[in-house]
Amino acid sequence: MSSHRQETVRRIAAPDIAARKGKTPIVCLTAYTAPVAEILDEHCDVLLVGDSLGMVVHGLPNTVGVTMEMMIMHGQAVMRGSRKAMVVVDMPFGSYEGSLEEAYANAARIMKETGAQAVKVEAGETVAETIAYMVKRGIPVMSHVGLRPQAVNMDGGFKAKGKGADERKRILEDARASEAAGAFAIVVEGVAEGLAKEITDAVAVPTIGIGASAGCDGQVLVVDDMLGLFSWTPKFVRRYADLKGEISRAAAAYADDVRERRFPGPGEIYFAKAG
After folding, report:
1. pLDDT below 70 — which residues of the chain?
2. What is the DSSP letter of 93?
3. Which partner for 224 in 50, 93, 149, 229 could form a disulfide, CB atoms 3.0-4.6 Å apart?
4. Separation of alpha carbons 36 and 1, rounded Å
5. Is position 246 annotated as part of the catalytic site?
């Protein structure tokens, strides 16, 4: 037997994130590829392999068409690129709603095939039971309340939530039910500031906001939005770069050099050895 031991990497895990409640805010960004994950890993506590990849990577109109195979492939890439951050993989639409056994089997498959530390599910009337079933069987689960992208066909679009009293009550109940079921953290998306704070104060696990005010225990953004890769972004996004403009300028300069035969130049080609 070989005495060689691989270096073990101590990644951030679910208990570490849960312990951050009310302390230093949790930094989270989405990641879908190994190179981007490698860049973000130094700065983030959590890398979320979000089903938003359906729209931002694959050009789908929403997240409904995302498959298990897509999530696993991108989850594997993010795990390869990162070393420190906790990696959480979204369970896609249709992979956890059918039955408790199906939800567990799909969650276990994601974790086995990617090596990720947790999965995320969008909460609803029946999801708390599913969260509890998976947690009891060793699957760390992050919940997601408020605006739920997988419910886009029910809601008729991506709309802010919690404006009416009944809806506020339901979202708060979803958050409390998620906590009671064993979720180690809760993403709160697209809700009014007051409701975000109410949820954060009502649950003992960290809340991670996206369009939900700075009152949450952490924040997450879609990395492509934050980097300015699209012409339009939601109101709650702050653009920290203009990569769309930079890429366009680089491509234009390359195209000009090719058309004017300036590229490749003498330093960018190979020459045969004399003799």
Report:
1. 1-9, 149-163, 275
2. T
3. 229
4. 37
5. no
Task: Please give the span between the terminal C-alpha atoms of the chain, in angstroms, as a whole number.
Answer: 52
Domain assignment present for 213? yes
- Is residue 96 within 8 A of residue 123, CB to CB? The reply is no
CB 84 within 8 A of CB 11: yes
pLDDT at 1: 47
Which amino acid is located at 148 in the chain? R
For residue 168, the domain's CATH number is 3.20.20.60
User: Which 8-state DSSP code applies to residue 96?
Assistant: S
Question: What is the domain range of residue 100?
Answer: 14-241
pTM of the model: 0.92
Cβ(202)–Cβ(176) below 8 Å: yes
Amino acid letter, residue 177: A
Q: Which of 122, 179, 189, 198 is catalytic?
A: 189
How many structural domains comprise the chain? Answer: 1
- H or E element that contains 47: strand 46-49
Q: Which of 89, 99, 70, 83 is nearest to 31 (CA)?
A: 89
